[in-house]
């Protein structure tokens, strides 16, 4: 099927993918925009996964102070080049992350950065709560409770406050796809008066 330039441009406007990627996706989907969008999404996530292993020596510090002056957030987000760190997409990502942290108060960036003593305490609490259950059932319940715990306290696993259908990890993968570079959240701090 021949794909005209206006169709490619329309898909490109919708997805921010490259011209050639849009053309190939439309050809593969026989002109169906929805299918082409799904194809691009899958390819974009695959590219993001490959880029996820590359180093991130550059980046920026983002900040947010709530209008009442009683809540503030600092975040360090890293990328591969200074050029990307100065990009508007990167700046928007920093703003979104800061506002999300202000709203949700996560404990850690990822599961790997949650202190082990906190994990052990949480597991012990669930173990005592379900001590009357058979071992195999109790273990499954505890695993499920821990999964919920991580989704609540780990920034990467939290649903994005502006779009609950996406997690912060999805937001990062989208940024990686748009920017063409690896992007990582290194650390953050949330400050609130009285806390």
From TrEMBL:
It holds the Pfam family EF_TS. It comes from the Bacteria. Residues 58-195 form the Translation elongation factor EFTs/EF1B dimerisation domain. GO terms for cellular component: cytoplasm. One of its GO terms (molecular function) is translation elongation factor activity. Keywords: Cytoplasm, Elongation factor, Protein biosynthesis. The keyword Nucleotide-binding does not apply. PROSITE patterns: EF_TS_1, EF_TS_2. The keyword Amino-acid biosynthesis does not apply. Residues 81-84 are annotated as: Involved in Mg(2+) ion dislocation from EF-Tu. Its main location: cytoplasm. It is found in: Cytoplasm. Belongs to the EF-Ts family. Associates with the EF-Tu.GDP complex and induces the exchange of GDP to GTP. It remains bound to the aminoacyl-tRNA.EF-Tu.GTP complex up to the GTP hydrolysis stage on the ribosome. This is Elongation factor Ts. It comes from Candidatus Scalindua japonica. The lineage of its organism: Bacteria, Pseudomonadati, Planctomycetota, Candidatus Brocadiia, Candidatus Brocadiales. The gene is tsf.
